[in-house]
Design goal:
The protein has 369 residues and is of the alpha+beta class. 24% of the residues lie in helices and 34% in strands. The strands form four sheets. Strands 1-2-3-6-5-4 form a six-stranded antiparallel β-barrel. Strands 7-8-9-12-11-10 form a six-stranded antiparallel beta barrel. The longest helix has 30 residues.
């Protein structure tokens, strides 16, 4: 009787082991999907998705890739690609806006349209002080519609932002984020600062430079220009030139090839020196001969006496704490106008009237022998 019970137990154990061993094979045979899976209806897209798709489909055809060519010590026919960035169609005449640093070192340029067509292009104007440049396409036939221009003065932190560009050469890439901050200041290769720069966390990487930053209506609100990143790739801190600046600078580049640089003819001392001396304002290090600053009686640093120069502490009704405060107001006033400067000398403040000139034009004039 005991032997029979033992055999039954062993049989049951054997059957269970067999089931465990064979289970995967049975499941694979019975449960494998040998035919295409049924398609489940997606349902309605969210409002945000529909808005994002609409922005991309509307603007993407107008976004281009700008490729700069470097001549290898020979004629232009021997040019080879040296770098690329992004641009966008500005008008029906075939003008394309991009960053100045995208075209600064190129010997020639081609533009790849969203359709894939490659078109030669030439630079018609550059503004290093704003990191903006304008190219003109060699063919002006059927072109994509220009990007719709919006405003940047009324932007709010937290608004949705969209960036379209060619990161790492991957064309027609869309990234989304928000406006993270406003009124940032960004140094440029021209030695000045762009004011009111837009900060965004929409992913911006090398190759995005010069592309459009858009709002939820698909309007241009900025031109992507730089990122802050220890690694060189997106870290969630990108910057864009505000469209209000772009809409002022680009027409000037198209008309004249350059943008006036409003100034009064001073050389400002390093801001670090001002901080070390406990000075709030712009220290005048030097005054250009014949300039409006000299005519107004401003004085620079006197090395012989060891005296610092005049300190500009205000312009019109606004305080001047740093050089960018002064240059921003001069740009708003414009070339040919006059401004009232508050100047401190020997611990006394006085007001002088100074005319604003185009210091860039003066610098370009040939010297008389």
């Amino acid at each position: 009787m005991q032997d029979r019970a033992t055999r039954i137990i062993m049989l049951v154990v054997a059957v269970l082991l067999a089931i465990l061993v064979l289970q995967p094979y049975v499941d694979a045979y019975l449960l494998s999907a040998r035919q295409p899976q049924p398609v489940v209806a997606r349902g309605d897209l969210s409002d945000f998705e529909r808005s994002t798709i609409r922005v991309f489909e509307t603007v993407a055809p107008s976004v281009v890739q700008v490729v700069s060519m470097s001549a290898r010590g020979g004629p232009a026919t021997e040019a080879e690609p040296s770098g690329s960035g992004t641009g966008f169609v500005w008008d029906a005449a075939g003008h394309v806006v991009t960053n100045d640093h995208v075209v600064a070192s190129g010997a020639g340029f081609v533009v790849r349209l969203a359709s894939g067509e490659v078109v030669p292009a030439e630079v018609v104007g550059q503004a290093p002080n704003y990191d903006l440049a304008v190219l003109r396409l060699g063919r002006r036939g059927s072109l994509p519609a220009p990007v719709i221009v919006g405003r940047s003065a009324d932007l709010k932190v937290g608004q949705t932002a969209y960036a379209i560009g060619n990161p790492f050469g991957l064309d027609q890439s869309l990234t989304t984020g928000i406006i993270s901050a406003l009124k940032r200041r960004l140094p440029t290769s021209g030695g000045r600062e762009i004011a009111d720069v837009i900060q965004t966390d929409a992913a911006i990487n090398p190759g995005n430079s010069g592309g459009p930053l858009l709002d939820s209506a698909g309007r241009l609100i900025g031109v992507t220009t730089a990122i802050f990143s220890p690694s060189g790739t997106n870290a969630g801190i990108g910057f864009a030139i505000p469209v209000d600046v772009v809409n002022r600078v680009v027409p000037e580049l198209i008309r004249n090839g350059r943008v006036p640089t409003p100034g009064i003819g001073i050389l400002a001392a390093n801001e670090t020196l001002a901080a070390q001396l406990g000075v709030t304002g712009v220290i005048v290090a030097g005054v250009a001969p014949g300039s409006p600053a000299e005519q107004a009686g401003l004085r620079g640093v006197d090395p012989a006496m060891g005296a610092i120069g005049d300190i500009i502490v205000g312009i019109e009704d606004a305080p001047v704490r740093r050089l960018s405060d002064l240059t921003d107001r001069l740009e708003r006033v414009g070339v040919g106008q006059s401004v009232a400067l508050k100047v401190m000398r020997d611990n006394r403040t006085r007001t002088v009237e100074v005319r604003v000139i185009d210091v860039g034009e003066v610098a370009q004039r040939p010297r008389r022998p």
